[in-house]
Structures are given as C-alpha cells and as structure tokens.
Amino acid sequence: MPYRGDFDLDEIIFFLKERDYSFFSFISDYSDEDAVISMKGTAALYICNVSDKCIPEQTVRSVIDVLVHWDECLEQAYGWLAFWDFNTGTWVSEKERVKAWCKESIHDRVKKRFAITEIFFRLDDWPCCDRGEYRVGSEPKEGADTFSIEFRADPLGFNLKFLCEERRLYKIIVHIL
Fold first, then answer.
1. What is the per-residue DSSP string for 41-94?
2. Most exposed of 49, 89, 141, 164 (fewest Cβ within 10 Å)?
3. Cα–Cα distance between 87 and 177 in angstroms, integer?
4. pTM for the full model?
5. How many Å apart are CA 150 and CA 152, to the nearest integer?
C-alpha cells in the first residue's frame, strides 16, 4: 500500500482539524496529487486534486463534516445496496424489498456481501468501466463538492456518489472489477 498508517475515524478527524497532514501520503493515484490515509476497517480515504501537499480549506471542512456524519452516509448507502439483485443485475422490485425487510437486517445483509474499499473527495471522473449508472437523486450544481464511497462485491464495484453539503446520495455507478 502506498499510504501510511491505519487510523481510527476520530484520529483522522483530529488530524484534519489540526491541519496536520503529516500522516497523509501524497501520491499520484487518481489525480495529479492525492492526499491518502488509511482508515481502520474501511480502507483508504483519498482527497484528490490537491497541490503542494496541502488540502484546500473548504475541502478540509467538507471532509470533516462528512466524517463526523459517517454513519448517516453509510445508512443511505446500505439502504440502496441491500436491494441489488446479483442474479438479475438490477435493483429488486418493491414487493421483494418488503419481503426482504422481514428476513434480515439491512446492515447484516450488506456487510456480508459488500466491503468498503475507498472513499473519494474531489475526484472529478470515475476511472472504471461502467456497467450501469442509476440516479437516485438530483444531480448537484456544477462545481459542487462531492464525495463517493466505493464498495466491492465481486465481480462488481459500486461507486456511490454524494453531495458534500447535504451528505445526500445522488448517483450509483455499478462497474465491473
């Protein structure tokens, strides 16, 4: 792994609040310069399109806000991922959703099948080959700060895109790994 450490969510929030980027690796992975840190149990947090080993102030505030409300973001993600049907390659019908609610909790079902691999801030273009794109909310205005959470469920990846300001899910990109 090209990034250092394995930090708890609270530690990463602390580093960002203190503007201490010494625990971040600055690499060229998804953009010309990415600030990357490993989150315990979650994988890698990427802040893309930074420069000179410095993260823009507005981005720092957005990342902190999202991380403080991380559970809320995961709830939205789980709410959709729990209803992907791997047999048909589509979302299950409303009738099937109601049946599924009775069998097993959404969290349990999603955690068994999906793993978070990366979290991206300021990533302009998703580099993977898309299998399908699903709008689940209105697109943000041009230039709005966004983030995405990448989930892996072999043989597919699911990139869930959120608007930073409202921490609102607006798009799911399904792609082949």
1. TTEEEEE-S-BTTB--HHHHHHHHHHHHTHHHHHHHHHHHHTTEETTTTEEPPH
2. 141
3. 17
4. 0.88
5. 7
